[in-house]
Design brief:
The chain is mostly helical. The protein contains 18 helices and two strands. It folds into three domains: 132 residues, no CATH class; 98 residues, no CATH class; 116 residues, no CATH class. Strands 1-2 form a two-stranded antiparallel sheet. A hairpin with a 2-residue loop joins strand 1 and strand 2. The longest helix is centred in the C-terminal third of the chain and has 27 residues.
Length: 389
Protein backbone atom coordinates (compact mmCIF):
# COMPACT_ATOMS: atom_id res chain seq x y z
CA UNK A 1 0.00 0.00 0.00
CA UNK A 2 1.32 3.44 -0.95
CA UNK A 3 1.63 5.74 2.05
CA UNK A 4 0.11 9.23 1.98
CA UNK A 5 2.61 12.06 1.92
CA UNK A 6 1.01 15.52 1.59
CA UNK A 7 -1.46 17.01 4.12
CA UNK A 8 -4.26 17.31 1.58
CA UNK A 9 -4.23 13.58 0.88
CA UNK A 10 -3.70 12.59 4.50
CA UNK A 11 -6.76 14.53 5.67
CA UNK A 12 -9.10 13.86 2.75
CA UNK A 13 -8.61 10.25 1.60
CA UNK A 14 -9.90 6.88 2.74
CA UNK A 15 -8.45 3.40 2.47
CA UNK A 16 -9.70 1.18 -0.38
CA UNK A 17 -9.71 -2.61 -0.16
CA UNK A 18 -9.87 -5.15 -2.95
CA UNK A 19 -10.40 -8.81 -2.12
CA UNK A 20 -9.74 -8.16 1.58
CA UNK A 21 -6.39 -6.47 0.84
CA UNK A 22 -5.64 -2.75 0.88
CA UNK A 23 -4.78 -1.27 -2.50
CA UNK A 24 -4.80 2.49 -2.19
CA UNK A 25 -6.64 5.65 -1.28
CA UNK A 26 -9.89 7.26 -2.46
CA UNK A 27 -10.15 11.05 -2.26
CA UNK A 28 -13.31 12.62 -0.86
CA UNK A 29 -13.82 15.72 -3.08
CA UNK A 30 -15.51 17.76 -0.35
CA UNK A 31 -12.71 17.11 2.15
CA UNK A 32 -10.08 17.87 -0.48
CA UNK A 33 -11.65 21.27 -1.20
CA UNK A 34 -11.90 21.92 2.53
CA UNK A 35 -8.17 21.24 2.96
CA UNK A 36 -7.22 23.39 -0.02
CA UNK A 37 -9.24 26.27 1.44
CA UNK A 38 -7.19 26.32 4.64
CA UNK A 39 -3.85 25.10 3.33
CA UNK A 40 -2.35 28.59 3.23
CA UNK A 41 -2.95 29.10 6.95
CA UNK A 42 0.19 28.48 9.03
CA UNK A 43 -0.30 25.54 11.38
CA UNK A 44 1.82 23.83 14.00
CA UNK A 45 0.20 20.51 13.08
CA UNK A 46 -2.91 19.78 11.04
CA UNK A 47 -3.89 17.17 13.60
CA UNK A 48 -4.13 19.87 16.28
CA UNK A 49 -5.84 22.31 13.91
CA UNK A 50 -8.65 19.96 12.98
CA UNK A 51 -9.10 18.73 16.54
CA UNK A 52 -9.52 22.30 17.75
CA UNK A 53 -12.10 22.86 15.02
CA UNK A 54 -13.80 19.59 16.08
CA UNK A 55 -14.15 20.87 19.65
CA UNK A 56 -15.91 23.98 18.38
CA UNK A 57 -18.67 21.76 16.94
CA UNK A 58 -19.52 24.24 14.22
CA UNK A 59 -19.36 21.76 11.36
CA UNK A 60 -19.11 17.99 10.75
CA UNK A 61 -16.07 18.53 8.50
CA UNK A 62 -13.37 18.47 11.23
CA UNK A 63 -14.53 15.04 12.43
CA UNK A 64 -14.46 13.79 8.84
CA UNK A 65 -10.94 15.14 8.30
CA UNK A 66 -9.76 13.42 11.50
CA UNK A 67 -11.46 10.20 10.46
CA UNK A 68 -9.51 10.32 7.20
CA UNK A 69 -6.30 11.10 9.10
CA UNK A 70 -6.79 8.12 11.45
CA UNK A 71 -7.21 5.66 8.57
CA UNK A 72 -3.46 4.97 8.50
CA UNK A 73 -3.29 4.58 12.28
CA UNK A 74 -6.19 2.12 12.25
CA UNK A 75 -4.73 0.18 9.32
CA UNK A 76 -1.41 -0.24 11.14
CA UNK A 77 -3.17 -1.44 14.30
CA UNK A 78 -5.34 -3.88 12.36
CA UNK A 79 -2.39 -5.19 10.35
CA UNK A 80 -0.36 -5.74 13.50
CA UNK A 81 -3.11 -7.87 15.04
CA UNK A 82 -4.03 -9.66 11.79
CA UNK A 83 -0.42 -10.80 11.36
CA UNK A 84 -0.67 -12.66 14.68
CA UNK A 85 -3.28 -15.07 13.30
CA UNK A 86 -2.11 -18.26 11.62
CA UNK A 87 -5.44 -18.63 9.80
CA UNK A 88 -7.53 -16.28 7.68
CA UNK A 89 -10.55 -16.39 9.97
CA UNK A 90 -10.31 -12.66 10.57
CA UNK A 91 -9.29 -10.65 7.50
CA UNK A 92 -7.37 -7.41 7.68
CA UNK A 93 -10.33 -5.59 6.15
CA UNK A 94 -12.77 -6.96 8.76
CA UNK A 95 -10.51 -5.91 11.62
CA UNK A 96 -9.97 -2.46 10.08
CA UNK A 97 -13.69 -1.84 9.56
CA UNK A 98 -14.52 -2.99 13.10
CA UNK A 99 -11.88 -0.73 14.63
CA UNK A 100 -12.92 2.37 12.68
CA UNK A 101 -16.28 2.23 14.46
CA UNK A 102 -14.42 3.61 17.49
CA UNK A 103 -13.52 6.91 15.80
CA UNK A 104 -16.30 8.95 17.40
CA UNK A 105 -15.41 7.63 20.85
CA UNK A 106 -11.75 8.45 20.27
CA UNK A 107 -12.49 12.04 19.32
CA UNK A 108 -14.88 12.52 22.23
CA UNK A 109 -12.53 11.09 24.87
CA UNK A 110 -9.17 12.40 23.65
CA UNK A 111 -7.50 14.83 26.07
CA UNK A 112 -4.74 16.80 24.27
CA UNK A 113 -3.71 18.58 27.47
CA UNK A 114 -2.13 15.32 28.64
CA UNK A 115 0.50 15.75 25.94
CA UNK A 116 -0.35 12.45 24.26
CA UNK A 117 -0.66 12.73 20.43
CA UNK A 118 -4.02 11.85 18.96
CA UNK A 119 -2.58 9.19 16.69
CA UNK A 120 -0.92 7.39 19.62
CA UNK A 121 -4.09 7.51 21.69
CA UNK A 122 -6.14 6.32 18.71
CA UNK A 123 -3.76 3.44 18.04
CA UNK A 124 -4.19 2.22 21.60
CA UNK A 125 -7.98 2.42 21.38
CA UNK A 126 -8.08 0.75 17.97
CA UNK A 127 -5.97 -2.19 19.16
CA UNK A 128 -7.97 -2.55 22.35
CA UNK A 129 -11.26 -2.47 20.43
CA UNK A 130 -10.07 -5.09 17.94
CA UNK A 131 -8.88 -7.44 20.67
CA UNK A 132 -12.10 -6.96 22.65
CA UNK A 133 -14.18 -7.67 19.55
CA UNK A 134 -12.22 -10.83 18.86
CA UNK A 135 -12.57 -11.99 22.46
CA UNK A 136 -16.32 -11.41 22.47
CA UNK A 137 -16.83 -13.09 19.13
CA UNK A 138 -14.74 -16.06 20.16
CA UNK A 139 -16.68 -16.39 23.41
CA UNK A 140 -19.99 -16.15 21.57
CA UNK A 141 -18.83 -18.65 18.96
CA UNK A 142 -17.91 -21.35 21.50
CA UNK A 143 -20.99 -20.86 23.71
CA UNK A 144 -24.10 -22.94 23.16
CA UNK A 145 -27.35 -21.02 22.76
CA UNK A 146 -28.39 -22.01 26.24
CA UNK A 147 -25.09 -20.83 27.75
CA UNK A 148 -25.29 -17.55 25.85
CA UNK A 149 -28.76 -16.85 27.25
CA UNK A 150 -27.61 -17.49 30.80
CA UNK A 151 -24.47 -15.37 30.40
CA UNK A 152 -26.06 -12.26 28.90
CA UNK A 153 -27.36 -9.27 30.83
CA UNK A 154 -30.84 -7.78 30.58
CA UNK A 155 -29.44 -4.51 29.21
CA UNK A 156 -27.57 -6.33 26.46
CA UNK A 157 -30.64 -8.39 25.66
CA UNK A 158 -32.82 -5.31 25.49
CA UNK A 159 -30.30 -3.57 23.20
CA UNK A 160 -30.22 -6.62 20.92
CA UNK A 161 -34.01 -6.82 20.70
CA UNK A 162 -34.26 -3.08 20.05
CA UNK A 163 -31.64 -3.32 17.29
CA UNK A 164 -33.78 -6.02 15.69
CA UNK A 165 -36.70 -3.60 15.66
CA UNK A 166 -39.18 -5.57 17.77
CA UNK A 167 -42.18 -3.81 19.25
CA UNK A 168 -42.17 -2.85 22.93
CA UNK A 169 -44.80 -5.52 23.67
CA UNK A 170 -42.76 -8.24 21.95
CA UNK A 171 -39.61 -7.13 23.77
CA UNK A 172 -41.47 -7.31 27.09
CA UNK A 173 -42.64 -10.87 26.42
CA UNK A 174 -39.21 -12.05 25.25
CA UNK A 175 -37.47 -10.49 28.25
CA UNK A 176 -40.03 -11.97 30.64
CA UNK A 177 -39.56 -15.38 29.06
CA UNK A 178 -35.78 -14.98 29.39
CA UNK A 179 -36.12 -13.99 33.05
CA UNK A 180 -38.27 -17.06 33.71
CA UNK A 181 -35.73 -19.19 31.85
CA UNK A 182 -32.83 -17.94 33.98
CA UNK A 183 -34.79 -18.24 37.21
CA UNK A 184 -35.97 -21.81 36.70
CA UNK A 185 -33.14 -23.37 34.70
CA UNK A 186 -30.15 -23.34 37.03
CA UNK A 187 -27.33 -25.74 36.00
CA UNK A 188 -26.39 -28.20 38.73
CA UNK A 189 -22.65 -28.00 38.00
CA UNK A 190 -20.45 -24.91 38.36
CA UNK A 191 -18.05 -25.70 35.50
CA UNK A 192 -18.40 -26.30 31.80
CA UNK A 193 -21.15 -23.73 31.38
CA UNK A 194 -20.17 -22.89 27.79
CA UNK A 195 -21.84 -26.05 26.48
CA UNK A 196 -25.12 -26.16 28.38
CA UNK A 197 -27.91 -28.11 26.72
CA UNK A 198 -31.50 -26.97 26.49
CA UNK A 199 -33.72 -27.81 29.50
CA UNK A 200 -35.75 -31.00 29.57
CA UNK A 201 -39.47 -30.89 28.88
CA UNK A 202 -40.48 -30.86 32.59
CA UNK A 203 -38.22 -27.84 33.12
CA UNK A 204 -39.81 -26.04 30.18
CA UNK A 205 -43.20 -26.61 31.83
CA UNK A 206 -41.87 -24.96 35.01
CA UNK A 207 -40.53 -22.05 32.97
CA UNK A 208 -43.91 -21.82 31.25
CA UNK A 209 -45.74 -21.68 34.59
CA UNK A 210 -43.36 -19.02 35.91
CA UNK A 211 -43.83 -16.94 32.79
CA UNK A 212 -47.63 -16.97 33.06
CA UNK A 213 -47.70 -16.24 36.78
CA UNK A 214 -49.27 -12.83 37.35
CA UNK A 215 -49.59 -11.96 33.65
CA UNK A 216 -52.88 -10.64 32.24
CA UNK A 217 -54.79 -13.41 30.53
CA UNK A 218 -54.33 -11.90 27.05
CA UNK A 219 -50.52 -12.05 27.40
CA UNK A 220 -50.33 -15.58 28.80
CA UNK A 221 -49.10 -18.43 26.62
CA UNK A 222 -50.89 -21.75 26.24
CA UNK A 223 -47.97 -23.93 25.18
CA UNK A 224 -44.49 -24.36 26.74
CA UNK A 225 -43.12 -24.94 23.23
CA UNK A 226 -43.76 -21.27 22.43
CA UNK A 227 -41.22 -20.22 25.05
CA UNK A 228 -38.64 -22.64 23.71
CA UNK A 229 -39.06 -21.18 20.22
CA UNK A 230 -38.76 -17.68 21.65
CA UNK A 231 -35.54 -18.48 23.49
CA UNK A 232 -33.97 -19.87 20.33
CA UNK A 233 -34.96 -16.70 18.49
CA UNK A 234 -33.50 -14.59 21.30
CA UNK A 235 -30.23 -16.56 21.18
CA UNK A 236 -29.99 -15.95 17.42
CA UNK A 237 -30.72 -12.24 17.95
CA UNK A 238 -27.96 -12.03 20.54
CA UNK A 239 -25.45 -13.69 18.21
CA UNK A 240 -26.31 -11.29 15.40
CA UNK A 241 -26.01 -8.36 17.80
CA UNK A 242 -22.70 -9.46 19.34
CA UNK A 243 -21.14 -10.65 16.08
CA UNK A 244 -22.56 -8.32 13.42
CA UNK A 245 -21.74 -8.72 9.78
CA UNK A 246 -19.35 -5.96 8.78
CA UNK A 247 -20.23 -4.55 5.36
CA UNK A 248 -17.26 -3.00 3.65
CA UNK A 249 -17.43 0.23 1.71
CA UNK A 250 -15.69 -1.72 -1.05
CA UNK A 251 -18.51 -4.17 -1.65
CA UNK A 252 -20.01 -4.23 -5.15
CA UNK A 253 -23.11 -2.10 -5.44
CA UNK A 254 -26.22 -4.23 -5.49
CA UNK A 255 -27.70 -4.52 -8.98
CA UNK A 256 -24.52 -3.42 -10.78
CA UNK A 257 -21.68 -5.45 -12.28
CA UNK A 258 -19.12 -2.79 -11.45
CA UNK A 259 -18.75 0.01 -8.96
CA UNK A 260 -18.43 0.08 -5.19
CA UNK A 261 -19.85 2.11 -2.32
CA UNK A 262 -16.50 3.88 -1.90
CA UNK A 263 -16.72 5.07 -5.50
CA UNK A 264 -19.91 6.97 -4.78
CA UNK A 265 -18.42 9.56 -2.40
CA UNK A 266 -19.95 12.90 -3.40
CA UNK A 267 -20.17 16.39 -1.99
CA UNK A 268 -23.63 16.25 -0.42
CA UNK A 269 -23.50 13.59 2.30
CA UNK A 270 -27.22 13.80 2.99
CA UNK A 271 -28.29 13.44 -0.61
CA UNK A 272 -25.74 10.71 -1.26
CA UNK A 273 -26.74 8.80 1.85
CA UNK A 274 -30.35 8.68 0.77
CA UNK A 275 -29.39 7.66 -2.75
CA UNK A 276 -27.18 4.89 -1.38
CA UNK A 277 -30.14 3.46 0.51
CA UNK A 278 -32.59 3.58 -2.39
CA UNK A 279 -30.23 3.19 -5.35
CA UNK A 280 -32.07 0.27 -6.94
CA UNK A 281 -35.35 2.12 -7.40
CA UNK A 282 -36.50 4.08 -10.43
CA UNK A 283 -36.01 7.84 -10.51
CA UNK A 284 -39.69 8.44 -9.81
CA UNK A 285 -39.70 5.97 -6.93
CA UNK A 286 -36.51 7.50 -5.49
CA UNK A 287 -38.14 10.93 -5.48
CA UNK A 288 -41.14 9.54 -3.61
CA UNK A 289 -38.90 7.79 -1.08
CA UNK A 290 -36.91 10.98 -0.56
CA UNK A 291 -40.13 12.77 0.30
CA UNK A 292 -41.25 9.98 2.62
CA UNK A 293 -37.94 9.96 4.50
CA UNK A 294 -37.99 13.73 4.79
CA UNK A 295 -41.53 13.58 6.19
CA UNK A 296 -40.48 10.85 8.61
CA UNK A 297 -37.59 12.87 10.03
CA UNK A 298 -39.61 16.07 10.05
CA UNK A 299 -42.40 14.42 12.05
CA UNK A 300 -39.89 12.93 14.49
CA UNK A 301 -38.24 16.32 15.07
CA UNK A 302 -41.56 18.11 15.47
CA UNK A 303 -42.59 15.58 18.12
CA UNK A 304 -39.57 16.34 20.30
CA UNK A 305 -40.09 18.01 23.63
CA UNK A 306 -39.45 21.78 23.44
CA UNK A 307 -36.04 21.78 25.16
CA UNK A 308 -34.67 19.16 22.75
CA UNK A 309 -36.02 21.05 19.74
CA UNK A 310 -34.35 24.20 21.06
CA UNK A 311 -31.15 22.22 21.56
CA UNK A 312 -31.15 21.20 17.88
CA UNK A 313 -31.71 24.81 16.84
CA UNK A 314 -28.76 25.92 18.96
CA UNK A 315 -26.51 23.20 17.50
CA UNK A 316 -27.48 23.21 13.82
CA UNK A 317 -28.85 26.72 13.27
CA UNK A 318 -26.73 28.84 15.63
CA UNK A 319 -23.60 26.68 15.78
CA UNK A 320 -23.30 26.99 19.54
CA UNK A 321 -20.87 24.75 21.42
CA UNK A 322 -22.16 22.31 24.02
CA UNK A 323 -20.62 24.43 26.76
CA UNK A 324 -22.46 27.52 25.53
CA UNK A 325 -25.72 25.60 25.26
CA UNK A 326 -25.18 24.22 28.76
CA UNK A 327 -24.90 27.77 30.08
CA UNK A 328 -28.14 28.72 28.34
CA UNK A 329 -29.97 25.73 29.80
CA UNK A 330 -28.25 25.88 33.17
CA UNK A 331 -26.89 22.36 32.64
CA UNK A 332 -23.48 20.70 32.52
CA UNK A 333 -21.78 20.20 29.16
CA UNK A 334 -21.95 16.42 29.45
CA UNK A 335 -25.72 16.64 30.05
CA UNK A 336 -26.13 18.56 26.78
CA UNK A 337 -23.97 15.91 25.08
CA UNK A 338 -26.24 13.14 26.38
CA UNK A 339 -29.37 14.98 25.24
CA UNK A 340 -27.92 15.48 21.77
CA UNK A 341 -26.81 11.86 21.45
CA UNK A 342 -30.22 10.64 22.63
CA UNK A 343 -32.00 12.68 19.97
CA UNK A 344 -29.64 11.38 17.27
CA UNK A 345 -30.14 7.78 18.39
CA UNK A 346 -33.92 8.15 18.27
CA UNK A 347 -33.86 9.72 14.82
CA UNK A 348 -31.50 7.06 13.48
CA UNK A 349 -33.71 4.37 14.98
CA UNK A 350 -36.80 5.80 13.27
CA UNK A 351 -35.00 5.98 9.91
CA UNK A 352 -33.52 2.50 10.35
CA UNK A 353 -36.86 0.85 11.11
CA UNK A 354 -38.48 2.62 8.16
CA UNK A 355 -35.64 1.54 5.86
CA UNK A 356 -35.88 -2.03 7.05
CA UNK A 357 -39.64 -2.20 6.52
CA UNK A 358 -39.90 -0.14 3.31
CA UNK A 359 -36.59 -0.85 1.58
CA UNK A 360 -35.87 -4.27 3.09
CA UNK A 361 -32.38 -3.15 4.11
CA UNK A 362 -30.36 -5.30 6.49
CA UNK A 363 -29.43 -3.12 9.47
CA UNK A 364 -25.71 -3.82 9.76
CA UNK A 365 -23.47 -1.49 11.77
CA UNK A 366 -22.14 0.15 8.60
CA UNK A 367 -25.67 0.87 7.38
CA UNK A 368 -26.57 2.38 10.76
CA UNK A 369 -23.45 4.55 10.61
CA UNK A 370 -24.51 5.76 7.16
CA UNK A 371 -27.93 6.58 8.57
CA UNK A 372 -26.27 8.52 11.36
CA UNK A 373 -24.53 10.66 8.75
CA UNK A 374 -27.82 11.10 6.89
CA UNK A 375 -29.59 12.29 10.03
CA UNK A 376 -26.84 14.77 10.94
CA UNK A 377 -26.76 16.22 7.43
CA UNK A 378 -30.57 16.39 7.36
CA UNK A 379 -30.59 18.29 10.66
CA UNK A 380 -27.94 20.66 9.34
CA UNK A 381 -29.99 21.32 6.20
CA UNK A 382 -33.28 21.55 8.09
CA UNK A 383 -32.09 24.04 10.68
CA UNK A 384 -29.90 26.04 8.33
CA UNK A 385 -30.92 29.72 8.46
CA UNK A 386 -30.61 29.89 4.67
CA UNK A 387 -32.73 26.87 3.87
CA UNK A 388 -35.85 27.57 1.77
CA UNK A 389 -39.08 27.92 3.71
Amino acid sequence: MTSRQDPVTIFSSFLVFRDKHSVGWAIDPKLRRSMLNVLSQPQQTWESYWYERYLEQLSPLPAQHLCAYLQSVCYTAAKRIASSFSTNTHSLEDLFQAAMLQTDRILQNFEPELGYPLKHYASSVFESAIRQTLREQKEVAICSDCSLLRATSQKRLRDALSRRGLSQEKQFLYIRAWQSFKLIYVPDHPGGTRALNWPSQPVWVEIFNEFNRGLPFEQQQNNPANLEVWMKEVALTLREYLCPTITSLNQTLSGFETGELIDSLVDDAYQHGLDALIQNESAQKRLLLHKQMNSLLLAAVNNLEPRLLTLLQYVYADGYTQTHIGNLFGERQYTICRWHERVLRNLVSSLALWSRDQLHISLSLDVLETMGTIVKEWLKNHFSPSRPS
